[in-house]
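User: Could you check the structure of this?
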Amino acid sequence: MANIRKRGKSYQIRVSCGYKVNGVQVVQTRTWTPDEGMTSKQIEKEINRQALLFEDECLKGHVTANIKFETFAERWFEEYAKLNLRGTSFARMKQLTGRVYPAIGHLRLDKITSRHIQQFITDLAFNGKNQKTGKPLARKTIIHHLSLISDVFEYALKMDMLTDNPCRRVTVPKGEVEEKDIYTREEADEIVRLLADEPTKYRVFIVLALCTGFRRGELLGLEWKDIDWENHLIHIRRTSCYTSDKGIYTDTTKTRKSKRILKVQPELIDLLKLYKAEQDQERERVGSKWEEHDRLFVKWDGKPINPGTPYGWFKEFCEKKNIRFCDIHSMRHYNASALIAAGVDIVTVSGLLGHSTVTTTANIYCHAMQEAQAKASAAVASSLDLSAVSGNKKSSLGA
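Assistant: Sure, the predicted structure tokens are below.
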């Protein structure tokens, strides 16, 4: 039975929801304030109706206890995220709490409104800074913050603790779309030329990144058995990942379609054979200290290298050679842009990149596709003499 208390101009509705294992009574509360101009009779009728509705919600389990967002979010991490998310995704979500918890972590789950979340997201969009670079947060990062909050609320809905997800009415400001840092064909050629005298391991890694468009984790997850030497094929079957909790570990590919096979140039196979011979010699030299993992990219003792190692090496390489530095992932963008510029259809490009859908590829490389289409249109136009229909050629009647 709901209990109603008048508190100033408002009314507090209290419903007992049983007892905890330690004997403490669980009480749900809701505050209702009558509209101005309501008569005493109208107020009495409406507050009784609100009490019945609230009691019914409590009995159905649609109301949370006095649980703060941070407390419930940590429960979501343990009960759901840890079991269902990839290790890298779990670690990223944990990092996002550094901004989310100070903003709404202290609020009760059932008291958080769309306005609370919208204010947080808008503040991130206009005032948020990347801690490493000091630059404004990327829109994708802001969307990740909203996704974390939404996932927590969706879990509460699934547990019959709430009836609504306030994130559904929140909008991420568009902001300016940043152009991706991508190497030009001339820059890529220069990088390959300057790699000639560098350690074979890094020469292979960078050339593979440029020529295949494989993700960093996919490159680091490559094993020698993934290479079909005779048919010049490379199989992507796994990724190598790192989190502070797990260290370096092997995971499945990002999506089901990320498992794929790519045919590569004979020159690339020759480079891989050279690298394999060098690694075999190193294994012999190290002897019993070598740990066999069959990986292409390993430390001196055969253990898989840290995912951050190629990034650090390439950054130093660019500084030493006075080359513009774009991160490792930019080589994937270079590969995709080169394919599109060469006239490869978007479905094939999507398959080569291992995207889950063609839409993903089209959205990411929309600009490159538009440039390729413009060049194609210009090529068609240049093959025809359109002067006669454009009015630029003098009419024989006026001669």
